[in-house]
C-alpha cells in the first residue's frame, strides 16, 4: 500500500508535492535520483544534504539552483554532509 503524502511544512515541500501531483513517492523518487524515504523527508520539511539539494534542483528544472532549493527549504547553504544518503 502506498504511503500517505506528508503534510508539507515549508515552501519546498509544497512545491515538490505539487509537482509530483497524484504520482506516488515510490514512483517519483527514482526519477529524482533519491530514495522514497528521502523524498518524504523533504516533503515533511526535514533537513537534507547537498546531494539531495542537487537532485531536487535538477528535478525541479529551469531556474532552480541548489541555493534556491535550500532557501525554499529554510536551510542554510553551508552543507557538508548529506544526512539523507
Task: Give a quick summary of the entry.
By secondary structure, this protein is an all-alpha fold. The protein has a single domain, classed as 434 Repressor (Amino-terminal Domain), CATH 1.10.260. 54% of the residues lie in helices and 0% in strands.
Notable traits:
85 residues, mainly alpha, 434 Repressor (Amino-terminal Domain), globular
Domain count: 1
Detail the poorly predicted runs: none
Average pLDDT score: 85
How would a textbook summarize the main sheet? Answer: none
CATH class: Mainly Alpha
Computed structural class: mainly alpha
What is the annotated CATH architecture? Orthogonal Bundle
Count of distinct strands: 0
SSE ordering = HHHHH
CATH fold group: 434 Repressor (Amino-terminal Domain)
Residues in helices, as a percent range? 40-55%
Strand content: under 5%
Number of helices: 5
Amino acid at each position: 500500500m502506498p504511503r500517505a503524502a506528508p503534510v508539507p511544512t515549508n515552501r519546498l515541500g509544497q512545491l515538490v508535492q505539487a509537482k509530483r501531483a497524484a504520482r506516488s513517492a515510490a514512483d517519483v523518487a527514482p526519477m529524482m535520483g533519491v530514495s522514497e524515504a528521502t523524498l518524504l523527508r523533504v516533503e515533511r520539511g526535514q533537513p537534507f544534504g547537498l546531494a539531495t539539494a542537487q537532485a531536487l534542483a535538477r528535478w525541479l528544472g529551469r531556474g532552480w539552483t541548489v541555493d534556491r532549493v535550500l532557501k525554499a527549504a529554510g536551510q542554510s547553504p553551508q552543507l557538508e554532509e548529506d544526512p539523507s544518503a
